[in-house]
Structure formats: C-alpha cells, structure tokens
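Exam revision sheet. Question 4 asks you to relate a sequence to its structure. Input first:
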Amino acid sequence: MPAGIRAQTTEFGGITVIQNNSENTEASVTLTKAPGSSPYFTLTGGNRGDYGLDFGTGVDTQAGVLIPYVSQLSRDNTAQGDTVGRFFATAATGPNDGLSDYTIALFSAPAGDEVNIDVNFGFFPYSKWIGGNARNAANNGELTELSGSSGLVLNTHFTDLATPGGQYTLSINTLTGNNASQNGILLVTGARNEDNYALSQANANGSFTIYCHDNGVDGATYENDGVGFVYVPTAKVGTEHLTAIGRVNNDASMDVSAKIPGKTTTVTKGATGIWYLQISGESPATGTMLVSPEGGVGNTTDNIVTCGWDQAGSRWVIETRDLPGATPGLQNASAAADDVFSFAFFTAPVLPVVTLTSPAAGSAGAAPAGVTLEATATDADGSVTQVEFLRNGLVIATDATAPYTFQDNNLRAGHHDYQARATDNEGNMATTAVNQVRVTLAPASIPANTALSFDGTNDYVTMGAAPTLNVGQMSDAGFTLECWFNREGAGITSGSGSGGVNGTPLFGKGRGESDGSNVDCNIFFGINAEGRLVADFEAQPATGVTAGDNFPITATHDPVTNNAWHHAAVTYDHATSTWKMYLDGVPAGSITVTANARPRLDSIQHFAIGTALNSTGVTDGAFRGRIDEARVWNYARSASQIVASKDQPVSTAPGLIGRFGLNEGTGTSTTSSTGSHTGTLTNGPLWVEGMPFGAANTLPTVALTAPAAVSSSAVSAPVTLQAAATDADGLVVNVEFLVDGVEVGEDSSSPYSFTWTPPATGQYTLRARALDDLGGSKESDAATLYVMPTANHPAVSLTSPADGGSVTGGTANLQAQVFDPNGDAMTVTFYGRHTVPATPGPDFKIVQIPDTQFYSEGAAGHADTISVQQLIATFGAQTEWVVENRKTRNIAFVSHMGDIVQKGNNGGNNIEWTRASAAMAKLENPITTLLGHGVPFGVAPGNHDISPIGDYDDGSTSFYNQFFGTSRFAKRSYWGGNYGSDNTNNYQLFTASGLDFIAIHFAYDTTPNAAILNWADALLKAHPHRRAIATSHSIIGGGNPASFSAQGRGIYDALKNNPNFFLMLCGHIHAEGRRADVYQGRTVYSVLSDYQGATNGGNGFLRTLTFSPSTNSIKLESYSPTLDRAVNASDSIPSWENTVNLPYNMQTPVMGWLPLGTVSVAAGGHNAALNWTGLEDGKNYEWYAAVSDGSLTSSSAARRFTRAPNAAPTVSLVTPAHQAVFGTPVNIDMTATAADSDGSIQRVEFYRDGTKLGEDTSTPYSHTWSNATVGTHNIVAVAVDNDKAVTMSNIAKITVVVGDEPPVIAITAPTNGTALPAPASITLTATATDAEGPVDKVEFFSGGTLLGVDTQAPFSRNVTNLAPGTYTFTAKVTDSIGQVVTSDPVIVSVFVEATAPSDVSRRSVGLFDPPAWTVVATSPAPYHFNLPGSNDGDVALKIAGAAVPFSGGITLAASWNSPASIAGNVDSYDNLSLPFAGADGNANISVLDNSNNNASDDNPTTSEQTSGVSVAHLPYAAGWTGASVSGAGVVLSGNLPAGVTISKLGEAGIYSIDGLSTAGNLLAVPNGNGGTSGDNVCSVRIQEGRWLVEVRDNGASEQDGDFCFVYIPATTPGVFAAAVSSAGVVSRMNAGLTSFGTLTATPGTDGLDLQFGDGSVINPSTAALFVTADSTRATNALDNLVAWSANGSKFRIFSQDLPQVSGTHQAIDVRILVIPFAPPVSPPANTVTISAPDATAGEHGSDKSLSFTVSRSGSTGAALTVALAAGGTASPEADYTGFSSSLVIPTGQSSASLPLTVLADDIAEGTETVQINIASDANYSLGATAIASASIADNPAQDWSLANISNPDKRSPSADADGDGLSNLLEYFMGTPPEDGNNGGGMSVTTTGSSAVFTFKRALNREDVTGEVEWSTDLVHWFRGGQSNGAVTLDIQVSTQSLPSDDPQVMRGTATTTGGGPLPGKVFFRLSVTE
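Answer key, structure tokens:
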C-alpha cells in the first residue's frame, strides 16, 4: 500500500506475545499478529515489555496516534523464568526511535516493572480522526508539545491545567460542531515509555478531562506526563471498519453507544469489578476490541482496566482493579451512574484475492524488451474496483475491468520486479508476491559506461579477503568510501555486529561475525530500513578502545528515493575520530567517537559489492538495484573533494586504493583500476547502463494541472490532484503529490494523478514534485486549496506580510486573498495581537529583595555575628551583586518586597531612608550597570515604611515618597506611572527575551482599596500583551499552599480575570511560602520570600526567579551575596525549600485576538487590505483574517511578523575630555552630541559617578557642574530617543584637584536660635579652613560691630553681659592670599522673663451679644463691662460706666459664635473682631463680617455686624505685660520689662519682639477700624529664640498693620494660657488654673474642643476664650480667621483659611488665653496611697506579672499626676519593665494601675524585691501607705546554682564550675554536683551496624529545662530525631529505665535509621539541654 494511502488508513490489531526467557533482549520474546488484525502494519521486533510497530507512513508518530490496551486479564510468566507470579499490567506508547515509529510499553501494576503480556491497539491517522499526542520536554514537566489532527491547538483545545498536575482538558466542540462528549467516546493512553496510564472523564459541556496516573500510586494523585488520545464519534460507526462503540456505566448501562445495522451490543454486570460485553457475530478472530478506562470520580480515580476473551461464554470480560495493592483488587465504581470504561470494536477487513499470472518468475530477455502483464482478482464480500500493475514498486498501469492486463515495452537492462495490486469496493488492498524478470544488454549495443544490477536476493561481487582493501591502513589519514547507486527495492539487510548498524549492503569488507579477532568487520556501508545511509567498523585494540568495539554512524538526510541515481560517501578521520556522511554531495551528519578508534587492519573478512561477507565468504544481505563507480580511499576526503569528483569517473588518484568502475559490460568478473583487485560476479548480477557521467542532468518539468491555483472544496470531499511532467534528458520516474510539504500520494505513469481526501477544514498548499531517473527533482508552483465545512463557504488566505517576516515603521499593510465559490461580495475582518518570539529567548532572572528593614536600621541588636557597619552594608551588597551579575545571569528586573526601613518616618530622622536610597541607587548607576537608566526596579512600601506602622489609610509615607517618589523614577524608560498624587502605588514596564512585562507595586494595606485595585485592573487591560506581576508587602503567609492575606486575596480576586496575570510576589512574614491558584485554566503563582528573622537581620538572602522560555519554567532559588550560598536548614527559615520549578508557558501569547478593522470586497474580487497602526518597535505580532459572504464565514490560518526594532540613539560625550584635570574652584562644562537614525532625541542626561546632574532637551546638549568637588569622577551622557530607547556614552574619567579655592567658615557655637536669660555671656566659636593652607585670621562681629580677632584655631571670642535683645553674630575668615568669606549669621536671643501681674483680679472680661450690644457675662464689680452702646459693628468699652483709655492696658477681642448670633443668622465664625482707639482715645471693638464663600484669589468684602464677641481689658497698672504697636513697629503704649524692644523687620507685616522670654505664652490681636488696618488678622511664632508677630490682610497677603499683644508668664495665676497643636497636643501651660483640671484638646472636623477637667468649673459659661494662630510649626496658620463657640462644657475653636472663607474648619496650631469672669473656688486637695494587689511573680513559668495600684481620696474632677520612685533589690529595666517615674490618675477616676513585667536573666541572684514609693508633691498629700512591695522568684536552675556553686563568677548556665566538661545547665539537668569534678554525669553510647543505644541521667523535678538527644555525622550540623541530613533520617526513642522514685532517673535511648538501613559510617550523639 502506498505511504500516502497508509497515512490515511486506520489500523488495528493484537500482538500475541510468547516469553522465551526472562531476559531483556530481542531473543527473549516472540511476537505474532493476532487474528482479527488489519493487514497493513508490521511488527518490527521488541524485547521485554517493548514491542515495535511500523504503520508504513514513514513518520508514524506524526501521522497518527497509537492507542494500546492490555488484552489479557492477567498473566503468569513463572514458567518462562519470571519470579513475580500472576500480575496485572497497563500499556503506554513511546516513539521507537524518537522520530518515526511507535513502541508499545507494558508495565506491571503496581510494581512498575516491564513485563510481557498480550496487547491490542489501534492506529488512528490524523487525516481521519481527531486525536493527538501531548508530551513534555522534561519528565513531570508541563506538556508543551502537541502533535495531532489539523486544527488541534495546544492551550486552545488541549490544555495542561498545571495545577493540579496530571490533569488535562480536551475541548473539541468547535472541531466536531456538537457536544463532543455526548456524541462520542475518548480513547486515551499514557504517552511516555514508563509505568503511566491514562483515564478519561466525559463532561456535560462536551469537553473531556484526561488524567495521567502512575500505575503504582493510590488515589487521585496524578503525574504530569504525556498522554495520547483519539475521539471516536458515533457518526464514525460503519466507517473505517468501526463496528460498535460505547461508554459503560457501573450498572452496565451506556451513556453513549452506536453500532452498525444488524449488530447487537450487550453489556451485563458480573461480580464486583467485572462486566461482560458481547457483540453479535464478533470475537477476537473477527476483529479487535479496544477498552479505555474512565476515571475522575470516586473509586475510578485510580482503577486500571483490563479486557480478555471468555471463549466458553463467547464474550469479552472487562475487569477494573483498585491500585496500589500488591495484587490490585477488583472494585466497582462508587455509584451506579459512574462511567467505568469505553470500548470500540473494529472488524478486520476481508481482503481481495489477486494473482499475477504473467510474466512468470525468472523470465528473461534482451533490451529493449516487452513484457505482458496479466492478473486475476476476486473479492469474497464485495467487488474488485481496480488492479494496478507495479514495476519495482511503482504503479505503471491500472485496469478496472477483468481480464486485467497491460503490455510493458521498451524495458532497459536490469532486474524488473512485477506485482499486481487489487483494490476492493471498501478500499482494502492485496498485493501479489514479486515475479522478477531479467533483461540483459543487447550484445551488439553495450554502452561504454556500465553498472551492475543486483536482484536483492543473492546477487553479489566478491573480491575475496583482499587485505590491501582494508581501510584505515594509514594511521592518521582515515579513509573514504563512495559509490553511485540506484535502489529499486528493499533488498535484504545485514549488520555489522552487536552494537553496530543494520542495512542493505552497498559495498564493504565484512559484517558481524565474532568480536575481538581478525574476523572483526573492517568496514560496512549500506542503507537502513528508513532509507538512510549507515556505516560502521569494528575496532582494533588501542588505548581506551576494546578490540571488536563497534563505532557506527547513521546519516541524517531524508530517506533516499527509489528508482533514481544517488551518490553516497562516508569519511572517517583517524586524527579526530570523526565520521562524516554525504548524500549527493550534501553533508548528511557527522559524529566524533572514542579517541584512538581504528578499523580492524588485519581483518580477513571478504570484500564484496551488493552483499556483506564474513571471513569464509558466506553472504548476508542483498542489495536490490544498481551500483556504479565504487571507490575506496586511504584518507578522509574533504567535502569539496567529494563534490568535485562525484560526477565523473576517477580511474587513478593519490590515495585511491580501490576503484571498481564496473564498465566491463560483459563477463563474470570486474577489475579495480587501481591495485590488483578482481571481483567475481556471483549468482548473476546483470550488466546494465551505468550512471550517465558527463553533462549535467536537466531537471524534469512539472506543473500541477488540477485543482486550480485557487480553489475550494468541502471537508471530506475527495480532491483529485493531477500533474503533467516531462524530462528532456531521461525519464520521469515518479510524480509525488505534496500537501503542505508532506507527500500524500504518488503516481509513476502519465497522466499523473492522485485522489486525496482533506482531513479537516483549513487552508492547504498543494504541489507536485517530479523525480527523474538521475535523481533530479523539481517542484511545481503551488496551488491554494480552501477546505471548508461546505462547498459554498468563502475562503481567505494571507499574502502579506510574509509569515515570519518583518515590517519597518509603526504601520503594517495587511493583505489577504479571498475566494467565494459563488462569486458573492464579501467582508473581511482582520484580527491581530502581540505574540511571543518565534524562537524562545535565553533564560533571564527577576530578583526579589525582601524586607531590608534591619539593614537600613543598623541596630546592634540585629548584628548577631557581624559589626553594625557590616549589617548596614548588607543591603548594598545585595544590589551590588545584582549589578555585578546583571549580564552573566541576564537579570532583567528587581522588585523590592517592602519594609525598606524599620521605623517609617522615624520622628523626622531620615537616616534609614538615606541608607536604603544609597543601596538601591547602585541599580541606577549607568557607569557600573552599563545601562543608561540602570537595572529596572520597583518598590512596594511595607507596613514599616508607613507611619504609624501599617496605617495605610491615615498614615504617612512622606519619607518613602521623598526618597522613592515619582521624581526619582519619572524619566526612567522603564517607569510606567503611579496611582494618585504620589508613588506609593506604582508600576513598571520591562522586556526580557522578547517577552513584555508589567510589574505593579502595591503599598501595604490591611484592607484592599477598591479604587487602587480598579486602577491596577485597568492597567492590565490596557497592556493585555504584557505578562503581569503584582508585588505587595503582604500577600501570602509561609508554607505551601500558603494562606492569602486580606490584601493578597483582594489583589488576586481583582486581577485574576486578566489572562496576562500570572505572578504575585511578597515579603512581610519571615518564611518562604507559595501557592498556585487556577482561574479559567490559568495559574497564578504567589511567592513569599522573607528572611528578616534569620541571623544578622536576614544574612543578605534574596530570591531569584529564573525564567526559561525554552522549557516553559520558572525556577525559584534563594541566595545570599554575603554568604555566597542558598538558604539551608541551619538558617531556620520556616517552610524553606530548595530549588523550586514552576511550570509557566512562555511560548504562547497571553492576550486574545483584537479586531483591527473590516474591509469590503466587491463581487468577484479577490484582494483585501488593511493598515495596522501603532506597532511597537521590536515587538512580535500575529494576525489572521475572517471572510464572510453574508451568511457563511471562514478564517485563515494565522501569520506572524516582527516590527523592526527601534535603532537606539547614538551619543558621544565631547567634554570634559577623558583624564582631564581641573583645579578648584571650577565649574565644569559637560557637552555631548547625540543622534537618532529613525526618530528624534528626546533628551540627553548628564551623570557624575552615577548621580544625575541635569539634562538638556535641545542641541547643543550641555550642562554645567558648578563648584565641582575634589576627587576622581566618572562623567557620562545618556541619550533618550522618542521611543524611550536609551544609550550611554563613552565614560570620561576626570580629576578635580585643590586650586585657589576661597576659605570656608562656619560658626559652630552657639547654634542659630539660641535663647539665653539676661545678662548673658557666650563664647563664639568657629571653624575655618582653606584648601591651600592655614587661614590668616578670623574676625567675629555682632551686626556690623567687630567683637574681636583670632588668628589661631580653635577660633573663638567671649562676649559677656549681653543685655536683653536679639543679636546677629557673624564671623569672617581671611586666607593667606587675602580672600575673605563671611559665615552664615547666627541669631541669639537674650531675654528677660516678665513678672506675673501683681493683682490678677484687676482685669475686665466679658461677652457681648446682639440684639444691639448686650453684655451677657462679665467680671464682678467694680471691673465689670456695661453700657456698650448700640452702634452696629462697634462696641464702646466701659468699665463700671467709665470709658476705658486704649493706652491704659491691653485690649483683647475674639469672635464668639454666641447662641444669639446663631439664632439671628449672624454667624460669627467668619468675623473679624479688632480693638481700636477712638478719636477720643478710648477703647472700642470693631466687628466686621467677611463675605463667604469668597473667591480663592480675592479679598473678602467686609461689612459691620453686631454679633458675638469676647473682650478683655488687662490694665498695665495691674502688672499685665504687653503693648500696643503701630504698623511701623512703634510702641504706642505698653508695660514691658526693661531691655525688651519691638522692631519691624524688612518683610511687610512682620514684627520682632526682642528680649522677651519665650517660656510663657503670647497672644496678639490686630487693631483697627477701617482703612488698611481695619480688616487684618494676626499670628505669632517663635523663631530664632524670639517672638515674631505677623499681620496679614484678610486677602491673605502680608501687610503692615497695628496690633497689640499680651504676654502671660508661666507663673501667672487666675488665668490659663497654653499652646495647642492641630493634633490636640497641649504644651507651655501656665499654672494658673491647673488645679481645676487638666486641659484636654480634642481635634475634629468641626473644630478643636478644649475642656478643663470635667468641665464643671471652667467652661464657656464661667470664662471667656481668646485665641491667636501660631505659625511656629506650620505656615498654614499665617492667614486664618479664628473664632470660638460653646460646645456644652467645652470651648470649640473654629479656624478658616483666608481668603476663601469656605465654612470649612482648617486645623492649625493656636495660642489660647482663658480668663474666668470671677476667680474660681479651688477644689479640695487629694490624699494618695499605694498597694500591690499582685505581689509575686518569677523569672520562670507563666506568671511574670506584678501589679501596683495608686489610689486617691477627694475630688476626681481633674487628672492627678503622682510621682513615683523605685527601690528594693530588683532594678527597673534590668529585672522588670513597665516602671515610670509618674503615674496619672485620669479625670473621673480614683485610682490607676502600674503593671510590671518580669525579665528573665542568666544571673543566679535568688529572690529579689520590688519596692514602689510615692514621692511628695504639692498637688497631693501622702496617705498611710505610701510604700508597697512585691517579690520576684529566681529561675529554679539559678536558685540551684546559687545554692550549690560558691564562686559567683561561675554560676551562669553555660559555665563549667568544676571543670569536668559539663556545663552547669547539664549538671542541673542530670542532678550531678556542680563543684565535684569527679562526680560528673555524661552519656554512654553503644553502636551496632543498624542502631545506637545510649544512656544518661535526668534529675526529678526539672520542669524548667528540656533535654533532647541530637545526632551529627560531621560535628558541625546537628539534627534531632526524625530529621534528615539530606542523606539519612534517624529515629530516636527515649524511655525511663529506673523506678519512678529514683532521683536522678536513668534514661535509655535507641537511634535507628528510617526504613531500617545501616547507620552512617560515622555518627555522633550529644545531649542538648535548653531552658
């Protein structure tokens, strides 16, 4: 049967296996075809458990799938030498030679051993069936290869689920057009030559699940290895010899069944695990039964299925058995409806009978001869449709009617093998045996060039032993064999011996005979069964070479074609031990063998042509065909020498030791033209025309005449391929028909045709190839055939760009050719997507840097075995390792897992961030990384990077964004962007090995943020082709599978629906961990890596992820650059793992197809085109087109192309020059040239030592480095083009040396802002240096006044008796050449403290309210306010009816949002309340309303308004300190301490109060009524040790204006002043009203609430509030309106930002003054006592807590602070924690607790006491119990040491008090005296080969210590019982051997290896005791 037909022929059958012995050789088994088999396959031999098959397609493993099943229920080969007894087995497949043939592999279950047992099988060609083989490159790896039916696509139809392993989904509904699983069955098999088998499960949605199971493993545990499968639909029954199919349930019912008409199929249930199957009229004699296990549910997850024939019952018996028992037991499925097995029965065909009646075998004649061919043919079950006549295997004629005849004329000389082949109406074929005809040359016309024809049976030429033809005679030259041959049939094979080759001999000297003597084979040269050249020799003995060893070679060329001349050559070079093969002058493979290997030089085997002879001349093998020009050379010829001489005869030449031209033309001998070798023709080889040397062969011409160049056909409809072919200088031997490059059929006679049935829909390329008699061949032009579901479907094929080509620019013009069989108009839609490179790129790495917090912190507590400096340097060592290994390890990206630092914002100290930034900056240095923008990296802030720690919602990442903010990344080519206004959440884009990635870094958050997750989801959808990685600090915990954190779960759930999302990385938890989650068949891996809990803060461990696109895997490995090793057991990393491999497909795209556009094609049109725009540089794309005629649609195959990569810019650093030297001071100009051949330069950046100095965006590109620093520096320029490609320039190494630099000076003391009481004396000190030498002098100045000169360092000047005021000091330095430099100024404030008022009762305070002006509260007479008048917006101040002179005191006012104001809708919150002096000099208050809501850039308009206001007048005469100041800074009135001055500074609206203490509180209010001062606001601040007052207009601009202020010393009674921060922190309180309760400040969105104690004494009904904004800490207080109101018993301050006055409270810092209307009554005093309710605890055990309680009697209206002191023998912080020198009893409570926690130590100190005393204080009196005590018990072991060890220095647990080698802790554990060196304990050990027995003592009542026996093999690494050292695991069992009352106890232990093996050769034991 022709190979093209065999490739479309379903075959089936059985193999009956006879075991001859228990060995594993070919002789150990005898294999025969079982009855009921199809006729066309061949058994190719086998050995134990491996049986070879050949289905004749040439590439069986690519042409179809083999499905085998065991056809015996069980077997026992004991009689044939086995020892296992009865066994059960499973079958699998594997390619026999890795390329072409199949092997059936049989393994016993569950032992997994190769066994011999009968087997059935089916071979299902892909042209007829939907099926395939899915395989992996590595055992248990991901399935990455799928060969199968046309249209069957990996990861589309067949999907490896990855997790769980060994489970695959087959979804073919789109291929079958229906619900596949409900309309057919699936037969499955294991597809690796090992003990796996497969099961299938039919799913309701039409898909199938395939399971790969190890036949020795119990339960639903599967193995990720290859499987084969074929879908058998019910519609196929009645075709392909398929008689019946079914899928059988546990109850013997069938889900799916079908049979041919007239047949009955019966399934009945037998005993447990047994079913009976009958098909009427069928048995193993009539066909082949295939049975496939069903699985996946309950019991069937691991059952094997076997089938055998019950002759007595005329039925098949099917058994299912449960794994993995030694004898698997019969078992039913779990439920009645569970599927158990599927079956398919194929009936063997009945072949026609054909006889070739003429010519008779052995007929002869002379050329040109004629032969009459006659044949008879019949068919028992049908009819004969044709008889073909074949000559030498080629069809020469076909006759469709009897009598079948043909006349074959003009035959050339040679052997002609004739056969007849009959085909019946079912397509079955039968072929006769060969009848050979011999045609000789006509004696009168013998040509000059002849050859010999060999009959393939027994013809040959022998030269005898011919010792001079032994090859390899020249020691180093080697040899060459070559000849021309024309193979005309299979011939008979021979071989070169064990370990050699088999093939039909061409010529040579020897064959396999006996090894190690002179009968070894000298050289064998032939053609193997696959049509490839082979050669071999057996070696003579030499160093490293055993006599008789074989050294074969097999060529790699395509199989040779028959009936055509070919040139064959083989060379062997002795010097290099290298074989080389050539076919037709083309290299066809080479190998290098063992050095010194040489052919056997003394071989006495005979030389022969056409056969192989042994040492006595006995033949083996026979060549069928013609041989000419056989040559033997004594050296290895080169390829060029072989080509130069192959096409011409060579009579003589140097090194040619044998040449048989075979040109005699007659007679029975032939002679070599060199040497004296004569050969004898034996058994009648024929003289024939030889190879036509001379003129070059003219190739044949060929044209495919049908089908047309573009055509269509319906699927499964036969297509006739026709061709015309001629040959100008010879004959056309054959025409082959090719479909997509693969031969499907051939014809040897004109008209050349072949009928081919398309196997599936799709686009096919058709060609014809003609072969002439000289071996030349030519292919026709191609025709395109569209195979559609119906004949009316339109079709489309792609024409441009070429598949695998490239395009330039950002646009590709897509072109397609369309065809509609009806000529209709069409629409064409183009689809495209990014794809992966055509060839997988190299491996690359991503590096995880986890939790570097302890390196950044640099705390001594984490420097366990290294210095603090080394600890800090660890972080930099990690990034330095990345830089050093970037190229060699191909590191593409670095991801930091967060916890960059330990202490977040660290109270404003950024030292940790500085260290971390420097470490990560190593990745950015273009000079060391040789990358313009460094190694791409991203950072995810962790919980420790946020302050407060972990508070994402309300915390601050200010330092993170200062050091790792957007400004750091924004112009780096890999930075993608950020979420919101900062870089807390960010992403990067990078590419590695042609794969594009997006890495999103999420900030730590305990609750997922929906907005951020939506942002991330949108990013993945915007970049669907980029493989997505999510990094956050906390995603999973440790272990595998690890648990998600809340954030991890949130990220996974939000992003899992994106096909490109595959990986999440995190740190946070000290452990390694991972998990794999599958969504819609896609796996997302999560990986935890964190080592912070290890020694030295993590020992520098990081994690690398090696991506291998070629193997579709990601390898996880840990590594420490500081230790130069991976994590191991000694590091105590929870759930750590060695190398982990994660399967991940990098050879398929991650995005789906996107429609690019639709174009219309007019009726009759054939072309469609579309521009695809926006293509990215260097990216890979694929596309296809779909065509529709309005009702039917078809799609093309996909094509791929690449956009040509962007040309990187060029850049050259012009200046500074390399090795240039500069002297300071200097500004260095950096210039560069840059260009971009395919775009533009976006910018050029300039770097110094890796730090970016600046950039330029236009040419000429330049930057100036100002004030360059001394040292050696590397300067580079980096160019960035419009596509973000980056190139680094040449490096200029420059040196900056000291030049004529100006001197440097700085005042070091006092510091700027120092405040000192008057009179003050200070010492001014300064440092002054000059690069060129010593300075000349230093001068000190106060303002412009010279204070003194110093010429010697240290430079200083004493200044004494400074009066109150503000002083500005500077220092000037003069160097040796007269350069003068002045230091920065230092401002010092010298102050006086004001005295408290002499009579605080002399103050007037009140509240004024509408209507008119009503005094609603005021001071008692005679200081009460009254008669305020009724002028709208102006309050006239009168005290006891008398006007108040403005200059007589400080007048304060504050806007008060009173109840009456609120009721009158006159909100005071936006008012201005300003005191002013009327025309009469008396005090008034101006109240103005500001317009609101006001514009943000405009002054509010104001209008007078009567609304709530609080007012106070504090007379100077009563001692109140303050003043009224004009806008020019002139004091208008006041009471100020001597020396205090007020001045206006240079800036508008800023006034300095010099010389006044800042220890108290100062409030200021603006003064004015109309004009520029009439609408002002005031704020105060402390700056440089003095008070500053700033006045601003209500439009928020600085403005000079009048104001007054009051200063409240800290000792002022009767009033309360304080500073209150926006966060509610109260400070700088005076003592005035503290006895009435602690002031509590509570910030809120509606204002800042103030409460005194419980609010019962001081509250808005008893006192007035005055407020001034404080801008000391924040400038947002400079321009605010501040008012207040009552909130119950609390004062509420409300502040609004000017000028907008939006009605929204803005939190600011304030200064407050609370003045009661009348002096409050003091509360009663408190009496305090202390007690110890929990007075005992200890260093050992669970009770480590003590508790003291401080109680008070009396008022609880205010908090009370109680001073405490600690005493006793125990010390705070050393022996316990929790002590504080004060304890606050909160407001409203009568007591407070002081809890203490005991600290354990190693000191033997006995019981200690803790004593807490209450210290005396004016705020309370001491009660009867002012002292309380408690006790701390020592650790029992330490008590023991104290009692038994006299020397205090030797009492620690690790010490050895008596020097006996046992620590004190061990002595305590064993109960031995610690000071008696002669009475020690110890441990005795006795070992045998398999166990160790040891004894030791243990004292009673030692519950505080634990003893464990540990073992080691090297005294370095120690392990406990049950632990493994990687090679062995020891179990240790310990028991008590003494009586329970014995003290100490005697303990006995035994150590054995797990599994019972011997102990290691060297093993040590020790007793480890821990507290």
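Marking note for examiners. The first helix runs from residue 3 to 6.
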